[in-house]
Every structure is written in structure tokens, then in C-alpha cells.
């Protein structure tokens, strides 16, 4: 079992504290039980929001990520457009200090990710944030 996951980031090492769609980049990894492999960096060239929760922004990000083969979107914070994004991707909230820590955790959670992927447009948002912040 493997998935292609995109991480919302500005620096390639950590999550940003803003909404996922405001990230400068989406770093894309292939994740399997055996390994995680960096695939590419996608620059966020989606249109600027004209209003809060702009559906055009969600469409732009969705198009960028689908072109990159992404199935899973991982971020520290999602905005209201997550209701649109979860129809296309498994959306996962994490608060690990680094993306490297999150990659390790996601490898352990592959069965839960698969279950949400198979749920199609009725997916839930997975919350893998540690309870203690």
C-alpha cells in the first residue's frame, strides 16, 4: 500500500501556521510501509483569494495537486475550503515539529488513510495531531 502525499510548507522542513492553501509550496512524497521518498516540490501558483474560502482558490490548488498525482494533503491548519478539498484528497491535520516526524507517523497510519481514501467524496478529515501542544 502506498500513497502520494503533499505537505503544505514554506521551507520544506516544517508546516506553516497559516491555512494549507496559503503555503508557498507543496512538497510531495511517496509513502509506503517500507519507505518515504521525496518526489517533487509543487509551487503554489493558485489564484489569490478574492474572498474568504474562495472556491476558485480551492479549484486552483486541487488542479495543481491532482496534476502531481497527489492523493493525501497534509497540513497543520486547514481553512473553510477543506470541505472542497476532502472530496478530492484525504486531508490530514498534523502538528509535528517537522515534516520528517510526520512522515514517520503517516507510515504507521496507512490503514486509516486507505479507509478514508476508499470513502470517496464522503471522506472525513483525519486528525493526527498530538493532544498535547
Element-by-element helix/strand order? EEEHEHEHHE
Report the portion of residues in β strands: 25-35%
Task: Please state how the strands of the largest beta sheet are arranged side by side.
Answer: 3-2-1-4-5-6
The CATH homologous superfamily corresponds to: Dinitrogenase iron-molybdenum cofactor biosynthesis domain
**In DSSP terms, counting alpha (H) and pi (I) runs of 4 or more, how many helices?**
4
CATH topology-level name:
Nucleotidyltransferase, domain 5
What general form does the structure show? Answer: globular
Low-confidence stretches: none
- Mean pLDDT equals 92
Distance between the termini: 31 Å
The description of the largest β-sheet is:
6 strands, mixed
CATH architecture: 2-Layer Sandwich
The CATH class label is: Alpha Beta
**What is the chains' assembly state?**
single chain
Compute the number of structural domains: 1
Backbone structural class: alpha/beta
Q: What is the strand and helix layout of this fold?
A:
Blueprint: E1 2-9, E2 25-32, E3 36-43, H1 55-67, E4 72-75, H2 82-85, E5 90-93, H3 99-108, H4 110-118, E6 126-127
Parallel strand pairs: 1-4, 4-5, 5-6
Antiparallel strand pairs: 1-2, 2-3
Tags for this model:
about 130 residues, Nucleotidyltransferase, domain 5, 4 helices, alpha/beta
Task: Describe what this molecule looks like in 3D.
There is one protein chain. By secondary structure, the protein is α/β, with parallel strands linked by helices. The chain has one domain (2-127): 2-Layer Sandwich (Nucleotidyltransferase, domain 5), CATH 3.30.420. Helix content is 27%, strand content 26%. A hairpin with a 3-residue loop joins strand 2 and strand 3. The longest helix has 13 residues, at 55-67. The N and C termini lie far apart (31 Å).
Amino acid at each position: 500500500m502506498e500513497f502520494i502525499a503533499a505537505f503544505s510548507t514554506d521551507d520544506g522542513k516544517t508546516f506553516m501556521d497559516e491555512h494549507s492553501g496559503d503555503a508557498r509550496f507543496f512538497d510531495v512524497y511517496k509513502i509506503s510501509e517500507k519507505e518515504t521518498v521525496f518526489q517533487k516540490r509543487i509551487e503554489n501558483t493558485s489564484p489569490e483569494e478574492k474572498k474568504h474560502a474562495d472556491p476558485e482558490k480551492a479549484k486552483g490548488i486541487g488542479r495543481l495537486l491532482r496534476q502531481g498525482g497527489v492523493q493525501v494533503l497534509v497540513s497543520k491548519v486547514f481553512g473553510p475550503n477543506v470541505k472542497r478539498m476532502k472530496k478530492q484528497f484525504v486531508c490530514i491535520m498534523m502538528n509535528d515539529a517537522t515534516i520528517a516526524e510526520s512522515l514517520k507517523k503517516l507510515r504507521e497510519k496507512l490503514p486509516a488513510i486507505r479507509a478514508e481514501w476508499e470513502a470517496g467524496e464522503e471522506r472525513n478529515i483525519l486528525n493526527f495531531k498530538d493532544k498535547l501542544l
